[in-house]
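User: Last request for today: this protein with HDD, please.
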Amino acid sequence: MAKKTKSSNSSDEKSKQLENFSVDGKDKALTTRQGLKVNDTNNSLKAGARGATLLEDFLLREKIHNFDHERIPERIVHARGSAAHGYFELYESIEKYSKAGIFTDTSRKTPVFARFSTVAGSKGSTDLARDVRGFAVKFYTQEGTWDLVGNNMPIFFIQDAMKFPDLIHSVKPEPNNEIPQAASAHDTFYDFISLTTETLHNQIWVMSDRAIPRSLRMMEGFGIHTFRLINKEGKAHFVKFHWKPKLGVHSVTWDEAVKISGADSDFHRRDLWDAIDSGQFPEWELGVQIVPEEDEHKFEFDLLDATKLIPEEMVPVQLIGRMVLNRNPENFFAETEQVAFLPGSIVPGIDFSNDPLLQGRLFSYRDTQLSRLGSHNFHQIPINRPITPVHNNQRDGHMQMEIPKGQTAYFPNTLSGGCPYLSSVEEGGFESYQERIDANKIRTRSESFSDHFSQPALFYRSLADWEKKHVADAYSFELGKCNHAHIQERMLWLIAQIDDDLANEVAENLGMKIPEDIERPINQAIGADANVADHQPGKKKIYLDKAPTLSQANTKFDTIATRKIAFLVADGFHMKDFDQMKAALEKENAVVKIIAPHGGMVTCDSEMEHKVDASIMTTESVLYDAVYIPGGKKSIDALMKKSKFIKFLNETFKHCKAIAVDNEGEQLLDKSAFTEYKEDKAIFINGNASDFISAIAKHRNWDRMDKTENIPV
Ligand code: HDD
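Assistant: Here's the final one, the structure of the complex with HDD:
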């Protein structure tokens, strides 16, 4: 679809609404919560300077009392998250599919609040855990709030919400010893996975690089479920939602993830905050895959099965608008911690499908907010308020913030003129899609959900060789952490249903054999026993040989904007080299960071001082996308004296990143563990900046992988 050209509304009603609730203590007197001005918040009231503290000290009691109750229960999943405000704007109306204002009115800039999260880890765990990432977007539309609560992977582990507690209990720390934190590499998870084979598709995605994103700004988002779009005539189309990041889809290696978690467990949170703070606003395009209802059963998989994706090669993603995140929260707790997303929050023009996973979610989110936010009035918390008027007869309860007027709290009524009144569909009143259902009440799993292997196999076949290697390494790490051989063996057999080479490589790394068969039925949990033999490559169930759009090798590599480039310097570095490279990189909106043997200032060969961004003692190579070393004998001699600079270089090489050096900088390469590989195509010695920039834009030079095995870091 053509990009929108005309300018959009600048009014951001949500920011204005939040401003009404914002409090700023700048140039204000300190007070109690009762508004009483305080003249001493440093000492408790005592019976004499050295006497006992007095119970009457209401200032002490209020301050400590409040402090004691500042924490609320963390989210039961997705506890660790980071969020930002922004807007969504439509390129062109898709009114033939949906009557939703957000999908028909191109003059709007709809305020949004997006929260990204890991799933398994506690609130204080690390950003770079190997995990799915939550991708939740709250659209404050003029017809009410729409919450699109997705993930960064297009499918989910399970098909029926009934299995969610089991899935989460299996991946969270084990109940006897609360180990491990923020990790799926343990027995209970793979015990459950190997007995519930519908999980294998999302599970292999978690073994891929998708689970360790370079940045929250460099990952896709998916609504996962099949939803419905409803147009003005009441006609429905099935739809799947996609978020396509402007910066492409890029990941770190597992070795980087392990080290980043130690060097900066807030890596993603800081990256998102800094990008917005510096005006490098993260951006995604919203895409839709549209399926006419009459085509519902044309696929080899069931659209209601959340463990299946629709390959873009079968139904293209139409890009219909963009989301730009351009404002950091004012207060983490008030906004990011208290935001409550509800998949059940929809607007006219959008509706649900009978996906059993979605159906269960429609209950759970509202329910969980009660224990998390403490009141059914959580929607009155500023960040959760719609920008549209709220009038109904729902009343009272803890923390009721509004003062309803009038004598009635019921409908119908005469005493309030029948108000708040009902709205017709034409006036914007919501009408559920009238889907015809002709079935018996039954507790079962649809036979159409029983293919658990074709799509994981398709995903794996579609990966580039370097991605496949990362999957094999990930399985070897994860299953290597399991202590029960029978669980490892089950998993090896199941992986062999996806790909023999993969299973053989993992089995070799585990020092195990792939069993001939495993105890059946596999799916004790759901009774079905998907006959895996049907799903070997080449068998009837395979509908695509490959789906190239699933591979990160086919993402965008057209920018180095916001990439962080480490400049390794010491006193006496060549100003000319430094200036030229810095100017070239910053012209492309990359971020240059000066790393020196010490903090404070570092002086170049023109006797000018430069502020050091990080001393080598406080930073690691894994926090940067590439390295540059300007010349200057004195500087290079000083760097050579610190082994950590050599380690920094060796790791940068090992992680297949670009390296550029000028003049005497080459001497540092000569001290590295990869001197024999100086001809590598992503190493530039007195090269030109544009080649270095192109190499950085390629994210990693994966051709180098076979040379990195012996790099000792
Ligand atoms: Fe969920 C939170 C995404 C399945 C029940 N979920 C939560 C969040 C995201 C998702 C992004 C964090 C929202 C935030 O930032 O506050 N969840 C998903 C996706 C799913 C999914 C994409 C499958 C397609 N979830 C799922 C199921 C259930 C839940 C099947 C229950 C039956 N999810 C919850 C929850 C959470 C939640 C327990 C915990 C915190 C919250 O709701 O607000 O209700």
